[in-house]
Amino acid sequence: MPKLKMPRKSTHVDMTAMCDVAFLLLTFFMLATKFKPDEPVTVTTPNSISEIPLPDADIMMITVDPKGRIFFSVDNPKVREDLINDMDEYKKLGLTDAEKRAFAVGASVGVPFSQLKSYLAADPTQQKEFDKTATGIPTDTTVESEKNELAAWIRTARNANPKLRITIKADADAGYPDIKKIISTLEGWKIFKFNLITGLKAVPPGTAAYDLQNPGMKK
Amino acid sequence: MAEMDTSSSGGHKKGPGVKKGKKLSTRIDLTPMVDLGFLLITFFMYTTTMSKPKTMEINMPYKDENIKEEEQSKVKSSTVITVLLSKEHRIYYYEGIGDDPTKPPQLNVTYFKQKDGIRDVIINKKKAVEELKAQGALAAKDQATIIIKPDEASTYEDLVNMLDEMSINDVKVYAIVDITPVDKEFIAATEQANNAQ
Questions:
Q1: CB spacing of B56 vs A48 below 8 angstroms
Q2: pLDDT by 10s per residue, chain A, length 219
Q3: CATH of the domain at B140
Q4: Which domain holds residue B101?
Q5: Total domain count, chain B
Q6: What ipTM, to 2 d.p.?
Q7: Which long-range contacts (CB under 8 A, 24 or more apart) does B130-136 make?
Q8: Is B55 in contact with A54 (Cβ distance < 8 A)?
Q9: Which residues constitute the domain of residue A181?
Q10: Is residue A1 part of a domain?
């Protein structure tokens, strides 16, 4: 019997192709990534069947945490800058330029006007620490009320950018009275159209909405 | 054989002191680079927010002090179900708008659930209104109407779920209204009656 000679193969694999794939994916993720915005509180939104995506720009977001604390934010740094300048004038907060800049680059605020100056003067880590115990923006059922600071925020923000879309992102466990106050405040400024941020849930089969979505499936 | 000899002696052309330069492979081991690539991919995958949050659009009724009483739209009591959202995700509902003090409405209790929940109540009401329309008891433009009255103990989730039921069941006319003291009494009375049982 002749001896079968097996050719010795190298165990080395050419990594070039794999490297190409890895970097292709990396490029994709880098371009597709939009970093999660810094949020002062974790909010679990309730789910709905609505599929309207949140618009990309011009958003004013009112966040409500489970305890009913209200945080306010606007997405565009340019608008934030105008907003804090107007607010400084309107409420005579006496903010320095550095504090205004801190607001323009920062995230949500959830402090009353009386604490805003010291809040903005603090560095970001201290601000985060403070957010845990912050009282939220005081609000009330009428816009005329002096205590309704949310109304002042909304009005000033809309002056800075009238196109702002108003969204409410509230926790599922937030009490209705807190939401009611926000809705009344919006109504006070004659804003009757706004968006509620929700998670997505499937449309239950056998209902009117399901039939609308799947017109062919009707029995 | 002789050829081999010459080739081997060729290496000593430069003289005995000069070493032959070892031919280096141009291949580089890419494994660490791949590792790095995948590490970064993992990082970006974790930090990315791929799914954008969804929103629910809501239009509140236009409220103006200048609107006169007669300009306001009135709903027919027979098309209406009033839904009271209460604590522990409980739902009380009754037919009509409950404005007749002599005839207190019959309150029923239900929950948000797949079967026999508030959804069936809404579907049945829609059917009933369609039937009344067919009989001519209601005008063609009348529609099933839901009045949502959340009380102080209800949560935001209840409200969103209820609004969601409106879109699930394709209810065109609905309104979120402040709860009245009368409605609170209804709830209290029903709770008491249920505890007594």
A1: yes
A2: 667 777 787 777 788 888 888 889 888 888 877 666 666 677 888 888 887 877 777 888 888 888 888 888 888 788 888 888 888 888 777 778 888 888 877 777 888 887 888 888 887 777 777 777 777 888 777 777 777 888 888 888 888 888 888 888 888 888 888 888 888 888 888 888 888 888 888 787 777 777 777 776 544
A3: 3.30.420
A4: 80-196
A5: 1
A6: 0.74
A7: B132/B78, B132/B79
A8: yes
A9: 47-200
A10: no
